[in-house]
Amino acid sequence: MTQRALDPSGFLGELYISFWIPTAVLTAALVIKLPTIIRLWRDPLLRAVGGLLLLACAVFVSCTPSTIAGINRLTGVPNIAAPWCYSLITAFCGSCLLLLVTWRNGPSGRSAATRRARRWVVSVYSGVIVALWALFLLADAPEERLRDLDTHYATTPFMREEILLYLVAHAVACLITARLVRDWVRAEGLDVWLRSGLRLLGAGYVLNLVFAAAKLTAVAARWCGRDLDWLSTDLAPPVAALSAILVAAGFILPHAGQYLRDRWRVRRAHRELRPLYRLMRTVSGEGVPFVLRATPELRLTRRETFIRDALLVLARHIDTGLGRRSYDAALALGHPAERARALAAAVSILAAIETRARAPEPAGAAVGPGTTHLLQEIGAVSRALRRPADIAAVRARAGAPAAGVTVPE
User: Fold this and answer.
1) Where is the DUF6545 domain (predicted)?
2) Domain contains 407
């Protein structure tokens, strides 16, 4: 076995994940959430989500070696990017806790316990950020380090305490957040997309714990005189990048899943109305004009409106007696009550179209308005029209004449 195969740092170096990848994913999550956050700005839960995503983006932009070098050059202070990056990571950890505190106590979060918890999180993590800058000012770190500052200065007075402080604050926040997310996943009544998103969030925070553990182990090894720097320089960065991707995906998935599910429901409802829509076109002689830029929701609304308007035209030709007989006939044929009502309505519509074709004006005492159910259940009626054999069986048993109208497919 080669020395390269035995060297974990060489293997992990090939697994490098550019920090710009999680940055792009986090930015996409923020862009997706931003309209809702702006529209419902007073919702503390949405504000917490927005703050967390914004800070996560800032962390990965700031922690790239090129950005670190740029911050150091801009200020003229070697390694000043360290407390800056540590502060952003600490603020991100505080945002994670604020998000979970807000969720645990409901969207309003106006109880005294909730306010105390928020104040505790803000005060503790603000204090940590202040301490990080104070320790950096007291430390002597003249040599710029872009990738291995944590381990290079692990034994330097004040820098040692600063590094340990930010890592412990990060680990504690991720541990609490991961546990709260786990409890949230186990709650009943969650939407499948929300549950899946929470599982991704949980996995992301667990990987954040792996990141903190790798960093702490490398730093502790330096204290003991050993060299495990590869844990900090080669293992921790790709773990952090992967955790950020999972966290971003956890926020994106519920939103995207809900959007796709709603879109699918609209398209399915539009498609299900096709048989009844085509049948109603024989009544009005025209259809809904096609508009290229119309949204699926608008197309569905227009189709529903067209069908209901056409049914109102047929209202005076509906034979309510035939409808009752058709319903009893459908029940006798073994159809469930809901299906029987839809079949009876389809029979009544077909008979009304035939009656209207023979005599534009209604005649006979048994004829009267009977479209209330039809207007409410056009989806079920349209689905029933897809089974001409069932309709024919109901008509025959109800004593209605054979259909003279062809049901469009």
Assistant:
1) 263-378
2) no
Angle between helix 337-358 and 274-284 (nearest 10): 20
Identify whether residues 324 and 347 lie together within a single domain. yes
Q: pLDDT at position 99, please?
A: 78
| HSE-up of residue 318 (Cα within 13 Å, Cβ side) | 23
Entry pTM: 0.71
Are 305 and 255 in the same domain?
no
CB of 46 closer than 8 Å to CB of 108: no
Same domain, residue pair 224 and 285: no
Q: What is the pLDDT of residue 403?
A: 53
C-alpha 270 chain-centroid distance: 24
What is the per-residue pLDDT across 164-217, written as a single tens digit (0 to 9) for each? 999 999 999 889 888 888 887 887 777 888 888 889 989 999 999 999 999 999
**Structural domain count of the chain:** 2
Distances (CA, A) of 376 to 20, 75, 370: 52, 69, 12
Residues in the chain: 409
Range of the domain at 154: 3-268
- CA-wise closest residue to 371 among 316, 329, 325: 316
Backbone angles phi, psi at 64, to 5 degrees: -70, 145
In a shared domain, residues 240 and 210: yes
